[in-house]
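User: I'm new to structure prediction. If I give you an amino acid sequence, what do you actually give back? Let's try with this one:
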Amino acid sequence: GMGVVPGVAVSGVIDMVTYKPKSGFAYSQRPLSLTGSWQYMPSGSDQGFVGVYLTKWNTSMNMRDTIAMATQNLTSMMMSWTSFTINLNYMSTASPDSAIIIFSASGSTPVNNSAMYIDNLAFSGTATGIKENTVNHINFTIFPNPSNEKVVLNYTLKSTENVVIKISDVTGKIVKELKPNGVIGNNKQELNTSNLSQGIYTITIQGDNSLSSQKLIVE
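Assistant: Good question. You get back a string of structure tokens that encode the predicted 3D arrangement of the chain. For your 219 residues, that looks like this:
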């Protein structure tokens, strides 16, 4: 058989072969957070997760830019309805044109009989005029892209700061994370992609006061 398939709910279209989301719904606001209520009953050591993405189609690059995103893992039992608030992390001052929300009852290694219930979903607040003045954009390039073995990131920092580089899949799950020492000016970081499955990923570079993300295609 095909083993255990995670229970996934997506506010959009899901690929029935890869079980990964393909598209969301039209949305043009800049909310502060996603709110709602949930119950979660993990089986064994299973971990559920939530991913929220606001994107905008980039006509010149022929791809979707991530305007804001948020991910949260669920590890503990919640037998009764529990309210939640997931704050969005903005990477751009632009307004999105689409949103996609993903709920999964299991992590990358699903366990049978995990269950999640969701209700009262809503976007809350507005981020206009908040993040734009506090987060600097990091200019960086990815080469080669598409990639199948490794990529080299070249990025520029306006100050010496702690840096976290994350690669996440389309569900928001972080599949690789590095913490290099960032220096003012030009920086270079090599990432091994040979152990990643084919697909579309997001590389996020985050500093003490700076943030940026780009798409990576692994073939």
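You can read the tokens as a compact description of the fold. Here is one thing that stands out. Confidence is low (pLDDT under 50) at residues 129-134.
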